[in-house]
Amino acid sequence: MDLNLKDKIILVSGGAKGIGLGIAGVLASEGAVVVIIGRNEKDNLDAVQGIEAAGGSTFSEVAELSQPEECRLVVERIATRFGRIDGLVNNAGVNDGVGLENGSYEGFVASLHKNLIHYYLLAHHCLPWLKKTKGSIVNISSKTAETGQGGTSAYAAGNGGRNALTREWAVELLPYSIRVNAVIVAECFTPLYAKWIETFDHPQEKLAEITKRIPLENRMTTAEEIANMVAFLLSDKSSHTTGQLIYVDGGYTHLDRAIGS
Is 77 helix (H, G, I), strand (E, B) or coil? Predict the structure, then answer.
């Protein structure tokens, strides 16, 4: 299926690694011009090199998105360079373990800047351009907003905010035909996920325990599977889909995770 994404200018925050890199790669394979936004120049350039080696078109911009002014400036640079913006994928974030008992005001607010506030700011600064192209926004979110995890209040709150903003923006942007959807991730093995697994005393046993509880095929979701849904939601093949929270998680969030036990 041709998604009609050829030459569309699509921004992907956190696009140098993990799920973001998967998204950038799939979009580039569909002919989009992908602009990776990330804090680490080397990571960004490595991602660009890999995507270009596969025949895709991609560029990178360095920005520390937890700093509000950098959100404005990076969108300004991209818009000046390309003269248009067709899509935004809000993806950057980190499950940083700021809990209730062991957290702090400072840690909680810093986590919201890492995980939620830049979603708002990037969308806010992209909006004048998205209005011109009737573009689309996809927010990447996590099942922690619905299931909880324990010890990660700020990240859970940030993802709850991502979900709420998805629905709110879908309503607010109806007059401009800008569609807004979210893809909810549960268990997808990324470098950050691997780092989290290593915090357990027996990481491989913990990983096997989690994988066993994923209903569909008892396996992790791949970054490509997340990316395929994102590409569809950005494309005109999903032209009447907005305000949706779509769970690409092998049934982990909503099916009984005790099936077969």
Answer: helix
245: nearest Cα among 138, 119, 118? 138
Write out the two tokens for 60. Answer: 């990178």
Active site residue 252: no
Catalytic member of 119, 155, 193, 252: 155
Alpha helices in the chain (DSSP H): 18-29, 41-53, 68-82, 105-112, 118-133, 144-147, 153-172, 191-197, 203-212, 223-234
CA distances from 212 to 53, 178, 261 (A): 36, 39, 9
The token pair at 1 is 């299926």
173 shares a domain with 53 = yes
pTM for this predicted structure: 0.94
Is the same domain home to 139 and 204?
Answer: no
Rounded-to-integer distance, Cα 90 and Cα 93, Å:
9
- pLDDT tens digits, residue range 168-206? 999 999 999 999 999 999 999 888 788 888 889 998 999
Same domain, residue pair 167 and 211:
no
Task: Show the domain range for 84.
Answer: 9-186+222-246
